Amino acid sequence: xxxxxxxLIFLLLSLxxxxxxxxxxxxxxxxEVAMNLMGIEQGMIIGEAGAGLGFFTFPMAERTGPSGKxxxxxxxxxxxSYIRNKCAAESIANIYTVPGEVADPLxxxxxxxxxxxxxxxxxxxxxxxxxENLKKYMNPGTTLAILDRDPDRYGAMRSHFMSREKxxxxxxxxxxxxxxxxxTLPYDNIYLAK
Length: 194
Prior knowledge:
Layout: H1 2-15, H2 31-38, E1 45-49, H3 57-64, E2 69-74, H4 77-90, E3 95-99, E4 112-118, H5 127-134, E5 138-149, H6 151-154, H7 164-173, E6 178-182, E7 188-193
Parallel strand pairs: 1-2, 1-4, 2-3, 4-5
Antiparallel strand pairs: 5-7, 6-7
Helix pairs in contact: 1-4
């Protein structure tokens, strides 16, 4: 039954243009532009936290190519099942699903080139502990890229999203150095840190 349900979800999302280059609604930014701003390149090993149904996962896998890897991480097993099923259906071999915990992504490697979080960090219930645990999967050159709504520019559901000041405070308190906060996208900021 689960496989049938996931297949049905996949078919519905495919029919209505789900996880490709851009979306309307909460993911209404240009994915290609976002990947360029983050510096995602062929051959990279990327850990994605809060992957959901793979809105950003699948384009990253295409961008990183056969020599790259994307570890799609989420605490929701149904989301990861959907990603696995889509990978099987489309013969995508460079995405690996990783069930995480609320305070630890549990990535299976410590040589990530980048960690990406798309529209999810504001929903983390233990962001400080999560950032502390993240460090064990990163080397000194690993970039952390967080793309999240800027409540000052987005307006809608303002109280749901994390302010720029609060997000930067979490990062600096966890010992991350902010490289830049890019405001190119209409409603979102991209926080790059090491």
